[in-house]
Write a structure and sequence with these properties.
By secondary structure, this protein is mainly alpha-helical. The chain is built from ten helices and no strands.
Length: 189
């Protein structure tokens, strides 16, 4: 039996991985990328620093597994089939994720490290896909395929600018107006 297979079924290893990834996820969401160090994760999880290093040789390994967990547990509103309602609900969800300090910290970390290679690029793509998947699904079901990506960029870009750069809430009125404008423009094109 290989070590990898043994680790997959060893409950102690599974518990260690679960605990460390949970601690890393919380640390990443609460304090951002710079707070994630092997020493801090070890201290908060109660495991030896050597144990953390043995399973996650780099900080990026810790962060990758934490982002995977965060994305895998992301919850989004269910689509109803009403285009305006569903776009509003998905955009409000996206805005909440940004304004409550979750998505903005994660996105900020990948943007800051964008030049650091394919692992960071994959994390950026995963975060974007996870954050926009409800919008993409709604659009794909209701608008021509050629319009999905441009509309998605307009909607998410406007909310991203509003919440992160302008430091303003994406209110119901703002989102309603945005959806109306984008849908009107896409129909006129």
């Amino acid at each position: 039996m290989t070590d990898e297979l043994t680790e997959a079924i060893d409950p102690r290893v599974a518990r260690t991985r679960r605990d460390v990834v949970s601690v890393t996820s919380a640390l990443l969401l609460e304090d951002g990328w710079d707070a994630v160090t092997h020493a801090e994760v070890a201290r908060r999880s109660g495991y030896a620093k050597a144990t953390v290093y043995a399973h996650w040789p780099t900080r990026t390994d810790l962060i990758r597994d934490a982002i995977d967990k965060i994305c895998d547990h992301a919850e989004h509103p269910a689509a109803t089939g009403d285009l305006r309602f569903d776009l509003h609900a998905a955009l409000a969800d996206f805005a909440r994720d940004l304004s409550e300090g979750h998505l903005d910290r994660l996105l900020g970390g990948v943007v800051e490290r964008a030049h650091q290679g394919p692992v960071i690029a994959a994390l950026r793509a995963k975060l974007y896909d996870t954050g926009t998947s409800p919008l993409r699904a709604v659009l794909a079901a209701q608008v021509p395929a050629k319009d999905v990506d441009p509309i998605l960029a307009l909607l998410t870009g406007a909310v991203l600018v509003r919440v992160t750069f302008e430091a303003q809430p994406a209110t119901r009125a703002f989102i309603d107006d945005l959806v109306r404008r984008v849908l009107t423009t896409s129909r006129d094109a």
